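Q: How would the C-alpha cells look for this protein?
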Amino acid sequence: MTRIRKIALEEHFMAPGFQTYSKGYLQHIDAVVMADLAKRLADFDDIRIGEMDRAGIDFTVLSQTGPGVQGETDRAAAVGRARENNDFLAAQVARHPTRFAGFAALPMHDPVTAANELERAVKQLGFKGALVNGHTQGKYYDDPAYDAFWERMQELDVPMYLHPTDAYAMPHVYAGHPEISGAAWGWGVETASHALRLLFSGVFDRFPRLKIILGHMGEGLPFQRWRFDSRFAVYSHGIRLAKKPSDYIGSNIVITTSGVCSPAALNGAIAEMGAEAVLFSVDYPYESTAIAADFIEQAPMDDATRSLVCHGNAERILKL
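A: Here is the predicted structure in C-alpha cell form.
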C-alpha cells in the first residue's frame, strides 16, 4: 500500500526523571496499557520509527508529555528542568535528524525566562517552536506580563502548540464525574478557554503574526466561530478587537486532527477555517497511529486539500 506523505505534530516522549509530573494523569490507566505506553514514550528508534514508516509519517515533531515543567511548582527548578528536557530532546533529534524535530518545553513561570529558553531552543537546538501544557500553576498567558514572551515568539516566527491540562480549580460541574473532567471533555474545555482568553484579550491584535496550534480538532472552537461573532456583538463587555472573533480562528489559531478521527468533524473544521488551517497529527502514543493514518487517507477530500492537511501546512508553518 502506497501511503500519502505525512507530518505529525502532537507526538510525545517521556524524558528521564519527568515521570513524577505525569503521575496524576497516568495513574488511572490500566497497568498493562501503561507499561506499553511507558515503553513507547521512552523509545526513539525501532518502535516509534517503525510505526511512522507503516503509517507514511515522514517527519514527526516531538514534545514532552504533559504536564512537564508546567507541573513544577518551583520557578528556579522549572528553568533547569526545561533546559534539561530540551537538551535531552535535541540529542534524540540529532540521532534521527531526517525523521524528528522538537518542540521546546518552556518554564512559563516567568515570561522573560521562558522567552530566553525558547530563543535558545530555536536558535541553538534547531527546534520548530514550543509545546506548552496549558496554564502554569494557574497563570494564563493573556496576562499583560506575557507580552514580553509573545513579542519574542513573534520575532522568532515559530508557533506554540497549546496542549491540554487539568483546570487549575476543578469546576463543580465535574464533581463525582472524573470520567468527564479530563481527556474526554474537561481538558478540551480548559484549553479552548485558554485560547479564547488570548483572543479576547487582544494578544493577536498586538502580535498579529503569532500562531497558536490546538489539537483534538481545535478543542471544539472551529464549530463555534459563528456564535462567537454573534454573542460578542451583544456581550462585548467593552472589549474591542480589530477583527471579528471568528477571523482569528483559522489565521492565528490553527488546529490539528490529533485524537479525533472523524471525517464529519474534519470536513466541518475545514469548511469553517479553510484547508490551510488544519494539520494532521496522531497524539502518539495515546492514540493509534494506524487508525489516524487510515482516517486521513480515506476521509473525503480532494487531493490538494489532503496534501495540505497531511504535510503542506506543517511545512509552511514550521518552515520545514
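The radius of gyration is 19 Å.

The longest strand covers residues 6-13.

Upvote if useful.
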